[in-house]
Amino acid sequence: MDSKNTKTVTLAITRDVSASIAQCELTHLERTPIDVSVAREQHRAYENALISAGCELRRLPELPGCPDAVFVEDTAIVLRELAMITRPGAESRRPETDGMAMVLRPFRKLSYIREPGTVDGGDVLVVGKTLFVGISSRTNEEGVRQIRAIVEPEGYRVIATQVNGCLHLKSAVCALDDRTLLIHRDWIDADAFRKYSLIDIDPDEPFAANALRVGDRVIYPSAYRKTRDRLQEAGFNLRLVDASELAKAEGGVTCCSVLVEV
Ligand code: CIR
What we know:
Order of helices and strands: EHEEEHEEEHEHEEEEEHEHE
Strand order of the largest sheet: 2-1-15
Shape: globular
Structural class: alpha/beta
Number of helices: 6
Strand content: 25-35%
Bound molecules: citrulline
Largest sheet: 3 strands, mixed
């Protein structure tokens, strides 16, 4: 085969921080002031980390009227064979999905989560051909049923697991590579992930389990120093970013991009 045709590029889809970010949804955090310009500056640095990890950036414009639209992860789940456009659990976030569907349409067959199903992309962790789906305040059993119906014909298996005490599954567990997960056991049943090698977050850093794997790198918040040391000792190639301003809106590093191999 001609090697020119086999080269893949990873698109990183992001969206500008909304001027209204201070009106974001909050579930487990108290509302504290968010500085939009600091959030935008940190978001740019995050985009630069994606570019330096080899991604091609596709930045969507700010969505006025959607405070949480920067958290694009919640609007779509992209697999090699298809993409699912979600129906976010928070009603305020449902208008965010149309723009994501438009960007993904040239690259993937699209399937849609329909009412009464709800799914936030933050509740779906893909590791190889397994989808772990968190049942949370945002993702319901019907959403899981629809995901199963969409992906099982493509050879994926779906494991549903309850999320307690945090917003999304990926607040509690993320993949660092195909065999290793970073986990906060207080918020999920670790037994669901027993086939993997598990690295625990440092107990002083409850929000430290959210990490974004891009190729052989891991984009990781600089704030979680103790957990960061554990990851570096384990040999992971970290790219540290300051994600503190959007953390006030309950967002982490996975939340701000959708990665698509094209
Ligand atoms: C929300 O509550 O929907 C936003 N304030 C935060 C969403 C973060 N997204 C994610 O973890 N995937």
